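New to this. Please check this record:
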Amino acid sequence: MNYYIITHYNTTNTPYFFFVADFLCLATFIGTLATAYNHLRKVSAIQNSVISLRRDPPKISHFGLLPLSYVSWLFYVSVLVTKIVIIFSRQTLLRSLVPDDVFGPQLLKVTMTLAAIVFLLLLEGHNWSKRGTPRYSYITSTCAKTGIELLDSVALLSILIDEHPADLGGMKDFILGIAAFNFFLPALKLYQLSFPDKTIDRRSLLVSVSYYILHLILIDIPFLSIRLYLWFAYGENASMFLMKNILNIILTLRSMYPDLVNMYNEYFFTKQGATNKRVSQKKHQEEAFGEEIALADHQKGEPV
């Protein structure tokens, strides 16, 4: 993507600093994967030792065990989205792309889709779970689902390359904004997987519900609305991702409901139960105090 920016802004040397940012991204990924490898080796050694049977479970920080996983992704996506905004905000740059050229619009789309492969490598680098375990299945499904979501963003951005009446007006900035946000959203999945067991950690439930709500309100519904609008207003060809957005809305609602029920029981009934328990204990103490006074033939409030 640096080629497109450097070619268009050929009168300044500022775009060359993106190579420095790319090098920092690569160094961050290498450090992240090395840290994850050393951590997983230690965990594997502890699990195989007899001492681990007598150890208490370690206290997990709010940042998780491997915070570099989602920090490195956020850094990479920040650089990537900056390049996307620079390229797609310049209409003259997009119009200069020739379909028959090697560095044409097709290569630009392929370059953006590489983010899905980067996410897959980053996620699998933190996965040493045995095949068939719930965590292994969850990571595998997350790789597939997130990869499709990133491809969906690229498909939506490709609309901006095509010719449209009035250049879509303000719709262009809206498409660019929600597509860019969809690149940042997988960081929540990486944060969720930074905990040892996502099925028992209380914070993981809150992150899961937050991801569902954000994805439904800011990604699925807007993506579907834009595609329907372009279909009816500009005669845009119906994309297969249109049906994907519909199915994703249904599946998100289906998957979110049990988590909402669990979160309601976890946060509401736990606090309500604790309050009722304190009220019951206080009432029991007052009744016991009254019984003691009655047995001693004293009135409540008089010195014993």
Remarks:
- The radius of gyration is 27 Å.
- The CA atoms of residues 152 and 241 lie 7 Å apart.
